[in-house]
Amino acid sequence: MFFYIVRRLISVVVMLLVISATTFLIFFASPIDPASLTCGKSCTPAVIEGNRIKMGYNDPVPVQWLKFIQGLFVGRDYPDNPEVKAKTPQLVTHCDAPSLGYSTVKTKCVTDIVKESLPITASIAIAAFILWIVTGVLFGIIAALNRGRWPDRFLVGLALVGYSVPSFFIGVLLLTFVSIKWQLWPLPVYTPLTENPALWAQGLVLPALALAAVFAASYVRLTRAYMLETMSEDYIRTARAKGVKETTVIRRHGLRAALTPIVTAAGLDLGGLLGGAIISEQVFNFTGLGWQSIQAIQNSDLPIIVAVVVVASFFIVIANLVVDVLYGVIDPRVRLS
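RE: above sequence
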């Protein structure tokens, strides 16, 4: 198991390097001059040239990428040219490690922006994850154990409706009616957990519900399908024939085997959301990574776009690693080598 984890960690590092290099090629090796996107409508030739030097866009793309990787470990100065730093030391901006770049649009280190936004995204993602896993898996089990009866039809029909409605529409409905019109719940406002845990939880309820509704509907159908497949296996019939209690058969034999594909989907979904719950953040005006990425696209802020891609990729590959390790814990038939 130890050597398996080490190999997977090495593959994670290699994959992140490939993703970051590919991202750099897409954004910085294009025909568009990246320096022309650093100052919005106020761009002049002098400003563009100054930002090109400050951001190092006059270097070849491979050199820019190597400096980006180096900045992750030791930090980076903008500009980092020794001659320029010596002439204008007052214009040098230092970004501590892990440096994800510098945004000339926001005149701020990208790492600081990520540090401010990541707790918001993580709060929404984890709250939604708990909601959809608990409700989706529970209702999926109930539907599978009542196959063909009214609970099964009701839950599957409800899941179909929930899966068909876009999450942004659910968010708008919750915000418009629950918070504004009927005033059943306060308007969602993010409060840091360390400041007030009660207000933190209160502000996450509606965004998490809007995000979890579609996922929960998907997991109801997923859990039901895998439970039905597992419960028809020969070893399930053998356990029943040996007189094992039905609850034990469901919990130890049926559910445990059915959880393997569910854990795969759950890990990747959570990893993707940690990279930015874009729709919920935009609807409820939560300034998380998803909100930051939309703003960066609108402002052509390439350093933030690259940073969000790298952060999202990191969470996805880490989630994939955790899922692979959990296979051996959940299902004894899986052997890691």
